[in-house]
Amino acid sequence: MIHLFNFYHEKSKKFFFSSLLLILTSYVAKYVFQWIMPESQWERLPMFLSFIAAVVLTWRINQLDIQPNHQTLASTATHSTLEKIIAKYLLAYFQVLVIAAVNLVFNFTTVSLGVTQLLIIALELAVYLAGMISYAILFRGVIAKLWLPNVSKPFAVAIGWVMIVLMNDVTRHYFPQSIDSVLTVNNGEFYPGTFILNACLSAAIVFVYLWLEKNQLKDDR
Prior knowledge:
The chain has helices at about 1-35, 45-65, 75, 80-105, 115-145, 155-175, 190-220, and strands spanning about 180, 190. It is mostly helical. It has a two-stranded antiparallel sheet.
């Protein structure tokens, strides 16, 4: 697992460090422009760049060994598909946490978080990061592996995404209980119902993907 983590880190570290440099530069630019032009609107730029960097990093890392044009079999052939998925997820989670920590450091005067809030944010980030990987990458892999005659695969993926959104809305409607949290996501609210739903959906997609991958390997033999 450590070998895989380091291997995928080597594949992504150039973009990761470039993203950190861009975020740090945006904060410097923000302070400079606020000093020169107090009316300038640069407050949200670093956060916006951080969000984009986190999404792109997660996408780039977790595409490896999933899409045919992103294969790295020469270095990962001895590892199972589950090990690869876990290693890429942990690397993406670690890199996103680093980006979040950079933003907390630069906003320590305006954002104050307790230990409980940090744990909630870390758990929420873990689940929704897994959800992004499952819904945007592994789910497409599941559809690609299924034999769907007379059905457009992009259409099937789109229908699946619509169903996921509807299930989240229904869960939010019937289980509206929330916990206050100093968070920009969900307007500062943490919803246990959707948290559990997305955790279960992500686990189910991973399970189906692994099952299809295992059967495909048996058929190839």
